[in-house]
Amino acid sequence: MLKYSKETLKRFSEPKFAGEMKNPDSVGEEGNMKCGDVMRIYIKVKDDIITDIKFLTYGCVAAIASTDALCETVKGKTLDEAEKLTWKDVVEGLGEVPSIKVHCSVMGIDALKDAIKKYREGIKPVINDEEECCEEMKNIGKIDQ
User: Fold this and answer.
1) CATH dotted code for 6-138
2) Which residues are designated catalytic?
3) Distance CA 44, CA 13 (A)
4) Were both Cys, which of 28, 29, 133, 143 would link to 129 (CB 3.0–4.6 Å)?
5) Structural domain boundaries of the chain?
6) Per-residue model confidence as pLDDT tens for the chain (145 residues)
7) From CA 83, how far away is CA 110, in angstroms rounded?
């Protein structure tokens, strides 16, 4: 049985940053075929600062909790500051996370960096939620684990 901290379980059951974002400046995605986790991070940027951030994650307790923690950590940071974050920065705020689940925080960082890269390259997000976003991702925090 996997052991999670109270903070991790709280972020899983009551994520603060979960949900879709209307008119994001950029969207980053990351997925892992082995574990089945998929993450989408939406960002709004003004004057090189991440002013708003949201996520949709289809995955396990650690995937949802770590993405939520990542969002809280980067909101208000510059793009350069956000790019320098590591998975250790994310896990540190969660407390105990099983070592087999650490890759979830790596995926969140990769999704964020994808969003930043696309923003800097001027790639505008095109999201057709009916085609691209599965219903399970829309029900963050309601997924039975």
Assistant:
1) 3.90.1010.10
2) 35, 104
3) 25
4) 133
5) 6-138
6) 778 889 999 999 999 999 999 999 999 999 876 767 789 999 999 999 999 999 998 888 888 999 999 999 999 999 999 999 988 888 887 877 777 777 677 788 999 999 999 999 999 887 655 444 555 555 554 444 4
7) 9
